[in-house]
Amino acid sequence: MGLVKSFCEANTSISHTWVDEGISPCFYFTLVPSVLLTIAFFLGTIHCICFQKYGTAMEPKFIPRSHLYGLQQAISILLLVQFLSGLVWQATTGAELPGYVVLYGCFSALGWVWAIALLRVERRRVLVMDRTRGHSAALLLFWAVAFSAENLAFVSWYSPHWWWSLENNKQQVQFALWLMRYVGTGLLFFIGLKAPGLPRRPYMLLINEDERDVEQSGQSLLGTTDENQSTWQGFWKKVRLLLPYMWPRGNLFLQMLVVFCLGLLGVERAINVFVPIYNKNIVNELTDGSSWHTLATTVIIYVFLKFMQGGGAGASGFISNLRSFLWIRVQQYTNRVVQVRLFAHLHSLSLRWHLGRKTGDVLRSIDRGTSSINSLLSYIVFSIFPTIADIVISIVYFITYFNAWFGLIVFICMALYLTLTIIITEWRTKYRRDMNLQDNNAKSKAVDSLLNFETVKYYNAENYEVGRYEDAILKYQASEWMTQATLAFLNQTQNLIIGSGLLAGSLLCAYFVTEGKFQVGDYVLFGTYIIQLYTPLNWFGTYYRMIQNSFIDMECMFKLFEEEEEVKDEVNAGNLLYKLGKVEFENVYFSYTNGKEILKDVSFTVLPGQTVALVGPSGSGKSTIIRLIFRFYDIHGGCIRIDGQDISKVKQTSLRAHIGVVPQDTVLFNNAIRDNIRYGRISASDREVEEAAIAADIHSKIMTFPEGYDTQVGERGLKLSGGEKQRVAIARTILKAPQIILLDEATSALDTQTERNIQASLAKVCVNRTTVVVAHRLSTIIGADQILVINDGRIAERGGHEELLLKGGLYADMWMNQQQAMDVDSASDTEAKDRNSEKLQPPSASSGHGH
Fold first, then answer.
1. What global pTM score does this model have?
2. Alpha-carbon distance 391 to 536, whole Å?
């Protein structure tokens, strides 16, 4: 059993802090547990009192289940056992047991008991009004100090009083215990930053949060993001999504460029080490009287290395410029692939999603998201990793060629700098995210207002629209001010840390020079190296912020990528084998939203070459049937077949290749009339385009335009009248020459004469083609082979025109109402003509003698 004879070892005192090129064990193992116990006892006690007095027990449903929390507890208990077992082991070795060893074991054990207790308290109770998330400052400070204390052992690397030489069993056991403490405290600190055992959001937000309406959340285009959510959440998921864009698959040339650029990056790291070394050699050779030949050689090598490096840490050196030049091709590849894949993905989404989208939000999200991917790759690969590599290399170099104090100064400065940069930047994230939302809002208002230019004019709402836009800009600028203000605070914090580290290192180096331990060139080396290191480190905060911003900018784009296709082809779906064009609906049920069925048990058959008309009140489901045949949506019950094939089992492209649609509301591309008609069949010749226009009764009208078929139709075709746009759409469908034709109120915007002309054209086009017509004017579908009267989602009546009139049902009522309306309109037109003719009669003779 070891006996305690003195507090420190023989010939040492607790006042001796530095002994034999290392920290005195007596001083170190007295100071560290005292600080830890102070933090745990006083701060932990205050924290527990506040939690008991002002806190409340968390509801179990809000406490997350986490394996990492279990790991936190296990590590804490393991460290507690380690301190106690270490004390017992040293007491049983039989040697003299210094008092500081007993104090270290007891104080450390007490401190870790408090830490474990505090960890359990935070798991079960919470301050109700607390608006933050994560562990308390007391617990994080305890873990940070414990981990930093274990790092101080590196300072005593050359001291014989420590365990680094591993010469005997005692030192080997001490090293094993230290390694356990080092790994354990490090894991606790870094896991503690994530706080896995605590709610991800402030407790007040959780208990007061209203449940979101299912339909509203379903219509949210880009989603709502928790402003307290870290942008690093889901980091690996985001990285996996980016991996295909990071490595240019299938392109050997670009892959070789990537590897070569990474090689240049390694060369830059080596040059950054040798530049200050040769600068030091020049100073030493100038002071010790070296020969001109030696000095000139050193200067030439230094200038060459500086030329390769550029102005401070490779900002604009030859290698950096060469790497940037070679990386252009890789960057362009990434940008192109991202935009093309996202564009294709948006086109694969359902009609439901596109009807609920906000075009301004989508465009801004695509622009910022695609540009941010390039920024992210560039910052991570060519800025963050090299900076971290430079920091590690510098710490090793200073410890090896100077002494451990310089390595400690660099390490503490780097650790403080990086930690505070990450913490403050994470805090700033919510302001940047809010600024993006306000930016999207402002741009969305501008786009919507400009797209509805005519409506704004109709209601003299220019001032109202300008006011809305100005309010949106003011909200954006308020968020922008907070973003810039917090950025200034971050920059000042970084400058303070950098200045403090430079001052401490420069004073220490200057002292060693005056003592004769260092040469003048060593001071120059330190100053050159440390400033060279601080240059990229000063940018590290910017890089980290830009990476954060890139993640924020990509969040909306990721949400676009995550939007699932509502209508998908089956894995082994084949092509539609078109035979005759028989369309069958069998017990079809469909609803746009849960609880409100649009179609209820709809069954009918359209025989090959027949024309079936769908009539009925607005909102009865006529246009929905057209959309289901085209498979814009998947039905919820029943089956739709074409030539006996279930359309949900065939590829969408093959299905739609056989179907032509003339929609009720025609939207044209902002392009020439010729190109809009040719959209029906991209490979069509100009002659075929003109023939389609003739068939749609639009050719003669086009020829009256100054530019003919090259006339630009304007945004959404606004330069054309409603009838002209519809005839262009009909010509486009005629050019496609489909076997099945769907007409959704195809002539609703046309005058009577034009309607008759197009009806004749459509009759020719529809000959021997299966046709489904949605009609409002019953006079246009008198000749249909079968008329289906849709009411309240069901087929109320079916039959021919005469047959339905004889039934005297819903169709007969609709026919009678339309005939009466036409008679009233005709009578009104006749009266108007009579009044106009009376106004044109010359005054009578009697009226002329009245004066």
1. 0.50
2. 10
Given the structure tokens 């800025």, which residue do they identify?
383
Answer whether 225-562 and 578-658+738-836 agree in fold: no
Q: Which residues contact 272 (CB under 8 A, 6 or more apart)?
A: 309, 313, 314, 390, 393, 532
For 225-562, CATH number? 1.20.1560.10
Which residue in this structure is represented by tokens 């004066």?
851
**CA gap 332, 337 in Å, rounded:** 9
Q: Contact 40/142 with Cβ under 8 angstroms? A: yes
Specify which residues 640 forms β-bridges with.
Answer: 585
| % of residues, the chain, pLDDT over 70 | 81
pLDDT in tens, 783-794: 888 899 888 888
φ, ψ for residue 662, nearest 5 deg: -115, 105
Highest mean pLDDT among 190-204, 241-255, 637-651, 736-750: 637-651
Instruction: Over range 644-662, report the average pLDDT.
Output: 85
Asked whether residue 353 carries a pLDDT value surpassing 70, the answer given is no
Q: Average the pLDDT over 194-220 and give the result.
A: 53
Question: First CA to last CA across the chain, in angstroms?
Answer: 145
Q: How many CA atoms lie within 13 A of 247 on its CB side?
A: 8
Nearest to 266 by CA among 165, 172, 354, 393: 393
Nearest-angstrom CA–CA distance, 313 and 306: 9
Average pLDDT over residues 362-390: 76
Beta bridge partners, 743, equal 662, 773
Across-strand partners of 615?
789
Name the DSSP letter for residue 642.
Answer: E
pLDDT recorded at residue 834: 58
765-803 exposure pattern, b = at least 16 Cβ within 10 A, e = fewer? bbeebbbbbbbbebebbeebebbbbbbebebebebebee
- Number of Cβ within a 10 Å radius of residue 473: 17
Q: What is the identity of the amino acid at 774?
A: V
Which helix (H) or strand (E) covers residue 52, if one does? helix 44-54
Which amino acid is present at 284? N
Residue ranges of domains in the chain: 25-194, 225-562, 578-658+738-836, 667-737
User: CB-hemisphere CA count at 13 Å for 320?
Assistant: 21
Domain 667-737 has CATH 3.40.50.10140: no
Contacts of 32 (CB under 8 A, 6+ apart): 104, 108, 149, 152
Fold held by 578-658+738-836: Rossmann fold (3.40.50)
User: Is 536 within 8 Å of 311 (Cβ atoms)?
Assistant: no
Q: In angstroms, rounded to a whole number, what is the distance separating the alpha carbons of residues 313 and 268? A: 8
The per-residue pLDDT for 648 is 86
Other C-beta atoms within 10 Å of 17: how many?
Answer: 12
Question: Could you tell me the pLDDT band of residue 245, with boundaries at 50, 70 and 90?
Answer: low
Sheet containing 599-606, strands listed edge to edge, beginning at the edge strand earlier in sequence: 599-606, 583-590, 637-642, 645-646
How far apart are alpha carbons 253 and 497 in whole angstroms?
A: 44
Cβ density class 569-588: b for 16+ within 10 Å, e for less: beeeeeebebeebbbbbeeb
The total of other beta-carbon atoms located within 10 Å of residue 423's CB is 14
Give the closest residue to 355 by CA, choosing from 558, 633, 649, 575. 633
Instruction: Return d(Cα 244, Cα 355) in angstroms, integer.
Output: 30
Q: Tokens 């059993």, residue? A: 1
State the amino acid at position 610 in one-letter form: Q
- pLDDT tens digit string along 44-94? 778 777 777 777 777 776 777 777 888 888 888 888 888 888 888 877 776
pLDDT on residue 227: 46
Measured distance CA(76)–CA(83) in Å, rounded? 11
Task: Name the pLDDT band for 751 (thresholds 50, 70, 90).
Answer: low
Tokens standing for residue 769: 């083609």
Tokens of 822: 């036409």
Cα–Cα distance between 633 and 639 in angstroms, integer? 13
For tokens 């600080």, the residue is 35
